[in-house]
Amino acid sequence: MPESTSLTFSLLPDSIRQSSAIGAEVQLPPGMSKLDLDRLTEKDKETLRKALFENQVIVIRGQKGIDATVLPQFAKVFDPSASDVHSAGEKAVSDPKNILSAYKAGRIPKAPQVGIIGSGTFHDYEGLKELEVIHLDHTLFHEKPLAQEEIDQGYTRPYRWHMDTPFYERLPGEVTILHSIRIPNLPDQMIKFPDGKEKSIGAGATAFFSGARAFALLTPEEQEFALNTTVTYAPQAYEYIRQCKASEDGLTIPTLGSEVPVEKLSEWSWDKVAEHPMVWRNPLNPDRPFLQVHGCCVFKLSTRNPATGEVTVIDDVEKVRNVVYNMQKKIYAAENIYAHRWEEGDLVIFHNRGVMHSITGQLSQHKHDEDKKRMLWQCTMTSVTPPKPFRTYEGVNDTGYVRA
Ligand SMILES: [Fe+2]
């Protein structure tokens, strides 16, 4: 097949990528305006994987009208071990203890792996008579919320950095696919950073930072610590932190005390509690270490001395959060964050095991309902294969769960 019929990709401009090491745009093969998996060659799929695993977030523009059932199939191009189960479980959530029910997230009936998130009420949509989706309000999330004056000036913040996974019972998918159906008709908003810089982003932008970049910013001592450390997440992690508020940067929980006591959580057992290496290996970019840790859901750190094999445990949750935060906060600068500026029809694939991402955007304050309406499809499927540790040694726990 001649070269000119192949799918290609190009990096987003330096002015957008800055130091994030994130972002590429995919051009479908000539003559293919909508993604058609049956017409992609093996070489096209290889190019897609290369684009994603080297750049962590890729976008295909102009995909308005794509069928929801294509998304789960497309995810398997990047993650052959993806199950057909949404990371949040088989069905849409109505459990008030679950984070996703705060969004009132719906599911597309013909593609239950695809969730609907956004803001506003929609009628007769994809077989759903009435669908109400709610954009999270920052005031629910931050210990020190933005002042009304700052909101009026157009400021927003990342709400909470995360990977798409419950850290309980199900493993994180390799990729998440987002598709923009409708974007808010609002002016740009701004994020203020601790160094005083400001970043102008699209209203409702999805923000990302690379775990590889986060690792590269660590001191050599911190890198060594991270490579030798296993992270145990809290049992029923999101329920555990349900009433906790995040720091202004959305990376950690600064104050201990609002956690649901473990004995009051929904039924749980240790063998379903997530346990992952702090540094993950990228399947197609195996020489680059990725610091992948959810700073709000952490519970315990076990660090192995490679010389002696001795393991040191930190299980004071406040201390665990501090250790992780001091490492991860270095990434929080305008030039390290890629904030995807949504256009309607965008298909965005992100490497869920290679980035942390966050919702941004103050939408609810705006007066006109039609202007703040937004809708995204989100396809995230739990994977069968656990994340691989970057550093392996005899006895390393690479099962994804606490070992009984
Ligand atoms: Fe997410």
UniProtKB/TrEMBL annotation:
<dbReference type="InterPro" id="IPR042098">
    <property type="entry name" value="TauD-like_sf"/>
</dbReference>
<dbReference type="GO" id="GO:0051213">
    <property type="term" value="F:dioxygenase activity"/>
</dbReference>
<protein>
    <recommendedName>
        <fullName>TauD/TfdA-like domain-containing protein</fullName>
    </recommendedName>
</protein>
<comment type="similarity">
    <text>Belongs to the TfdA dioxygenase family.</text>
</comment>
<keyword id="KW-0479">Metal-binding</keyword>
<keyword id="KW-0560">Oxidoreductase</keyword>
<feature type="domain" description="TauD/TfdA-like">
    <location>
        <begin position="22"/>
        <end position="380"/>
    </location>
</feature>
<keyword id="KW-0408">Iron</keyword>
<dbReference type="InterPro" id="IPR003819">
    <property type="entry name" value="TauD/TfdA-like"/>
</dbReference>
<dbReference type="Pfam" id="PF02668">
    <property type="entry name" value="TauD"/>
</dbReference>
<dbReference type="InterPro" id="IPR051178">
    <property type="entry name" value="TfdA_dioxygenase"/>
</dbReference>
<keyword id="KW-0223">Dioxygenase</keyword>
<dbReference type="GO" id="GO:0046872">
    <property type="term" value="F:metal ion binding"/>
</dbReference>
